[in-house]
Design brief:
The protein is mainly beta. Helices cover 8% and strands 42% of the residues. The protein is built from one helix and five strands. A five-stranded antiparallel beta sheet has the order 4-3-2-1-5, with no helix packed on it. The radius of gyration is 23 Å and the shape is elongated. The chain starts with 27 loop residues before the first helix and ends with a strand.
Length: 99
């Protein structure tokens, strides 16, 4: 029972819906699931980049790449068919092509 000092509950329909987000949002897990099978850039803590197609990864950030190129200071130093990178060496993963 409401007394005279209690305001009525707000009308839900009186508030407009929030605007859509201006930039794509999602969790890091969503991003990682979205880049499997796509070209990525993996930066190691040493500063070396590996560019290739992300084959798979696990919860420890262990990564398997296909068609891999190793870049040191922006210069291709090696090419590998497949490369496996231990997760504790990974600084970040970036999409190399639009999602």
């Amino acid at each position: 029972m409401m007394d005279e000092s209690t305001p009525p509950p707000p009308d839900i329909d009186a508030y407009p819906p929030p605007p859509p987000p201006s930039a794509p949002t999602g969790t890091p897990t969503d991003f990682l699931k979205g880049v499997v099978g796509k070209k990525v850039i993996v930066r190691l803590t040493s500063g070396v980049d590996y560019r290739g197609v992300l084959s798979c990864l696990d919860g420890y950030m262990n990564i398997a790449l296909e068609q891999t190129e190793e870049h040191v200071n922006g210069v291709v130093t090696n090419r590998y068919g497949d490369a496996f990178i231990r997760g504790n060496n990974v600084l970040y993963i970036s999409a190399a092509e639009p999602l």
